[in-house]
Sequence to fold (873 residues):
Amino acid sequence: MGFMNLLKHLLSDDWGVHPDDHKRPAADAPVRVMPVPQRLYLPLQQHLGGPARPVVLVGQQVSKGELIAEAQGMVSAPIHAPTSGTIVAVSEITAPHPSGLTLSAIILEADGRDAWGELPACVDPFSLSPAEIGQRVAAAGVVGMGGAAFPSSVKLVGASRAKVTTLVINGGECEPYLSCDDRLMRDQAAAIIDGIRIMQHATGANVALVGIEDNKPEAIAAMQRAAGRGDVVIRPVPARYPMGSEKQLIQVLTGTEVPADGRPADIGVIVHNVGTALAVRAAVREGKPLISRLVTVNGQCAAYPGNIEVRIGTLAEEVIAFAGGLKGDGLGLARRIMGGPMMGMQIPHWRVPVVKGSSGILALDASEVAAQEPNPCIRCGRCVKACPMGLLPLEMSARIRNQAYDEAIDLGLKDCIACGCCAYVCPSTIPLVQYFVHAKGELAAQDRTKLRNDATKKLALQRQERLAREAREKAEAAARRKAEREAAAAKVAAEAAAVNAQTQGESA
Amino acid sequence: MNSHVLTAQPVASPHAHGGNSVGRTMFRVQWALLPATLFGFWLYGWPSFFMWLLTVAACVGFEALALKLMGAPRIKASLLDGSALLTGWLLALTLPPWAPWWVPVLGGFIAIIIGKQVFGGVGQNVFNPAMVARVALLVSFPVPLTWWVHPLPGGGLPAPDVVEGLRIFLTSLPVPDAMTSASLLGHAKTEMARGIDLLHSLGGESSRLQSWFGVRAGSFGESATLLILAGGLYLIACRIISWHTPLAVLAGVALPAAIAHGIDPARFLAPETHLLSGALMLGAFFIATDYVTSPNTALGQLIFGLGVGFVTWVIRSFGAYPEGMAFAVLLMNALTPVIDRFIKPRILGRDRQGKPLDIPEGQGA
Fold:
């Protein structure tokens, strides 16, 4: 491996980074199923797009899998009760986000029976039309399980319309520490392959390529056994972060690039995660909504790292407690992360619920986060070599520091996928991603301000026009009235003159 | 809303770091320079050791002074990153081994204050500080900067002991003529000026083996070609530098030299003589690869390196100075912002001009 990496380095084909993956021993520990906790906290916004709208009342009894919030808008996903119980409140809960801001959430008190309601099962999914599969996936609230949480049905339906030819399944799991996809592929390979076939049927893709990083030999073996010699092809890919990023995985597996202003569907490709394949299968075959997921608990501070099947809405605090708690009661804990260490979110405390896109709960100690004061840039160019998009992070951050956002855009700021490779390799520990996220936020704010200013200007212009028109109309009316008055006066005068003339004639 | 307080300032991802640091990078470079430096001590004795020590100390001292005067925070951390130490070390390697005490002090001042801190400190300088100092000294004090002492082992003269070495270093008396000789490039140049062509001036000299091992007159650390090369390859292997710049520099000298030598061997030196002489190896692997003052794309580095090599060859062959490495590096340093402006990596999903790739026909919703 070392020699191959050196060779790649010499040939400059060395995008991305090779972080220490920290996946074992968590990946090798068998999955533990966590019992339903007392209370579940279900944020209405667990996906990209519009938040769901609650359709239950406080005090209402719900069964397991019952719809409690419906999708709202074109891109959205419904939310279902992860267990049977009573709705106790619709309130605020800390979001899995570094800001510590809150989200509206439905709070469900479990009754302990955990009884399913009616499920619309389906014996032969391949007899369904793509649109029907899309409907079932949408109704089950399935979203991308890799972390982005984009509603899967939107992608599936869009793909069948766009005449997609290749279905890429992302089993890369390139984020260090995380092993939930690895575990799923080892334990449920046959079900995943079934889910992939259903998605293939729904999208009309004639081939499905499953990309799995070569640091997961067990998962590759299990998937190859399950796939057999069909049109689902298991393709080991080099372990390299960010291999699991959509554009990078497509390029490695199909050799084509997604145009900068296009989507994968534009080149006939659609990408789904292995976890999503499993959720799609459950939704289509059994009619089961997405109410639980596998979460990796890991980090130096976790006492018993491993993968845990958790109901959506369980607090991270309870997941950690079930997993065996933290070493030394959390002494030495330096950072709490939801997601992976490269792109995950720092969270302010553990009372944050697991949502559909949560892949990991990490308790990192000081040696792992390696937080240091940033030093000046020495222009070593490591970020340029690491950037998987071919950007110049050092130049972009220099522009952003001077608030020259337009120049940063010219350098490709909008192509940045925030993967964090640049900051990972930076010898001066400059928080490059923070610069880019800040600049993107500033630009979004500027766009909003511009929209508002334009709207105000338009309104002001309309008002001016209206006032001018009114004044003109008033003047015209006044002129008309004056003319009428004058005409009337002239008439009267003429009549008077005529009368006068008559009288004079008579008198004459 | 929450009773929990934020325990730390929230930070953006990534939450992991590769563990690389400026200090580690500088340390590796110094490690790579060590063999050639130790070899230089053995060749030139105590005076060269004092010269090296004072150059490094002067650079670190001036760096500390500048940081203090600017009121910079974390002075100690900035000093410990080793960048000033490395500048001093590189400067020392390019100076005559028996240079008197004021050369290192003045050199350190020029390198750190004029070459680096007036531009804004580490990462901000346009020109390589060590080369700025080297060129300023050479132009201002040509005589002491060309006292090339004979290597002591095999030179027939007794090596000075510590006290004698210190006396030579501090008194700045001219080195007796018996102990000096011209460097190979200097020799070729002066003989050429006298009308003696290369076939006669270099005739019969089996200098190649000497060049490899560095037992010849020249700058303190430049002569041990083999050791410098080994240090450079070590840096490539541990990915401190990439191969692009060094290879391009060597090619930039060797290609024109091979063509010219092929046409007129009496007028132009052979490419292997060029490669093994003067500051070329040190320049290719340690000077031209300076992060701050060289381009940061692979293609840019190739252009930069070829430029350095070619200008070096032109100065050596046609210029008034026998060696042109330092001038070539400074010239290309000035061009680095231009190269960086025009040579950019291709963004994924875009063409070289930055326009998005075409969406193929028949696809897309």
